[in-house]
Design brief:
521 residues; alpha+beta; three-stranded mixed sheet
Length: 521
């Protein structure tokens, strides 16, 4: 009887590429380290900027970690995972994106050394998880026992912005504006972060940035003869065209004489005039419309002295409605007094060739806007990113668990705590925990490098200083020095450090566990 022979079974397409074992791990780790290296030099107050140019020639100049990683044309799947780490960090707490990416990359670098020493990936994962837990426990003990007053929050905001493109704007002044904005929308233990908007406008120095207690929109009245400054304004928001009604069915009108044409035009005029009359009778002073306004309707609205803004962005209209207490209308014929909002002032200001409309003193929401100025579009955009991060960290500091010393002090303390706790971890996982501590050391080392200090000497001195006191890498003019970060005003929210630890660990361990890459062309 002939023996059975098994034919090979192909489950992948001919064009599929497969990488397995150490080759797969090495490829992923190399990609992760490359992502970390791309942003490492931007860390800290003396960090450098990156210029990113896309395929169409658009230029972005920034040292914001998540912006750099999102603008890069990253193709490797493992590298994309580290980009997701930065994006998640940005979404959750608004800052610490570079820290999270650099930490994840260095956790992968240390893991590679362990894998080369025949430590199993699962053991590396166990050791990293244990080290992370030790670090998180130690982090909770580092929170400053101090009231989060305006001065302390301003230090948090300034720390977030230090080293970022603030133009000629003083970081301290900008930090004060950030704190004022967040305080304005704080409601007990909750901060309504979404009620703080940031609006950029090029054409002036960063020092001209100001806080507006209200909402801005880049629109001006549709006609020159409409009011440009209205006090005690009754506001209506219309989410529809202000035009003659259209029939839902296809209808043809057979007009055979000039009289019939004039009658049709008169009917349209009467309809548009009726819209203006209804708004005027309801007491509307200002109308914001998300769609177009017919020129004839605009003329009738001008006759009624109603300032009208057309094609307002939906996001702006939503913010205006929220701030003034207005309800977005679908049809002016259904207008009700309860649908109208109130603003203490609606005024149009001209900046160069641009008009900005300020809606201030709204009835319902205490919305505020940071009007960000910059000499160029690039400066204004980078300042917008810096202020956005500052707003986020101040908000999470108030909402979260307080603040901890910055300038690399916290990372040194956490690394020491892990080394002290590592002997209590069983087996080879202890080696992974110690590698985690070494990865944490990279953050203060990078700060030292970026300030011109010798990174090895600085790290040794920093460890010694934190055994008896509290020290970090603090910028002093053109270089850095060891000093108490709290006294220097360098502070970070606990939430930023905690999220960076958690997200970096999760990303690194996920990459380490991969031993097979299957990719289709």
């Amino acid at each position: 009887m002939a023996a059975n022979t098994m034919s090979p079974v192909f489950i992948l397409g001919n064009d599929a590429r497969r990488t397995r074992g150490r080759d797969a791990q090495s490829s992923n780790i190399t990609a992760g380290k490359a992502v970390a290296d791309a942003v490492r030099t931007t860390l800290g107050p003396r960090g450098m900027d990156k210029m990113l140019v896309d395929a169409t020639g658009n230029v972005v100049v920034t040292n914001d970690g998540v912006t750099i990683l999102e603008e890069m044309d990253v193709e490797h799947p493992a590298a994309k995972m580290l980009v997701d780490v930065a994006r998640t960090q940005e979404d959750e707490v608004g800052d610490g994106t570079t820290t999270a990416a650099v930490l994840a990359g260095n956790l992968l670098a240390r893991a590679e050394e362990l894998l080369d020493s025949d430590v199993h990936p699962t053991t590396v994962v166990e050791g990293y998880a244990a080290a992370r837990d030790i670090a998180l426990d130690a982090l909770s003990t580092l929170a400053l026992d101090a009231e989060l007053d305006d001065d302390l929050l301003a230090r948090v905001a300034a720390t977030s912005m230090t080293g970022k493109g603030t133009g000629d704007g003083s970081a301290d002044r900008l930090a004060d504006l950030v704190v004022a904005a967040v305080r304005h929308v704080a409601d007990g233990d909750r901060v309504r972060r979404d009620d703080v908007r940031v609006h950029t406008l090029a054409g002036a120095s960063a020092g001209a940035t100001e806080l507006v207690e209200g909402v801005l929109t880049e629109k001006s009245p549709v006609r020159e003869d409409m009011p440009r400054d209205v006090s005690d304004a009754t506001v209506a928001v219309l989410d529809a065209k202000l035009d003659t009604r259209e029939t839902s069915a296809s209808v043809e009108y057979n007009i055979t004489s000039a009289g019939q044409l004039n009658a049709a035009l008169d009917a349209e005029d009467a309809e548009l005039r009726e819209y203006a009359r209804r708004l005027a009778d309801a007491g509307v002073d200002v109308l914001f419309c998300t769609k177009k306004v017919d020129s004839r309707a605009a003329a009738y609205l001008a006759d009624e002295d109603i300032a009208t803004f057309a094609n307002v962005k939906t996001s702006d209209a939503t913010a205006i409605a929220s701030a003034t207490g207005a309800v977005a209308l679908g049809d002016v014929r259904d207008i009700d007094p309860d649908d109208l909002g109130y603003a203490a002032s609606v005024r149009v200001e001209t900046y160069g060739d641009d008009d900005l409309t300020f809606v201030e003193g709204g009835r319902d929401a205490e919305s505020v806007t940071l009007l960000v100025r910059g000499s160029t579009e690039h400066v204004a955009a980078e300042l917008e990113r810096a202020l956005g991060d500052a707003l986020d960290v101040v908000a999470v500091a108030l909402d979260g668990d307080g603040v901890v010393p910055g300038a690399g002090c916290t990372e040194i303390v956490l690394a020491d705590a892990i080394r002290e706790g590592a002997p209590g971890i069983d087996g080879r996982a202890q080696l992974a925990a110690e590698a985690f501590a070494d990865a944490l050391d990279v953050l203060p080392r990078t700060l030292a490098e970026n300030t011109g200090m010798d990174s090895i000497d600085a790290l040794v001195d920093l460890r010694a200083a934190n055994e008896t006191g509290r020290a970090g890498i603090v910028t002093d003019g053109e270089t850095g020095t060891l000093a108490d970060p709290v006294e220097a005003g360098v502070l970070d929210p606990v939430a930023v450090k905690r999220d960076a630890l958690e997200s970096a660990t999760e990303a690194a361990t996920m990459v380490v566990r991969i031993d097979d890459i299957i990719a289709a062309n």
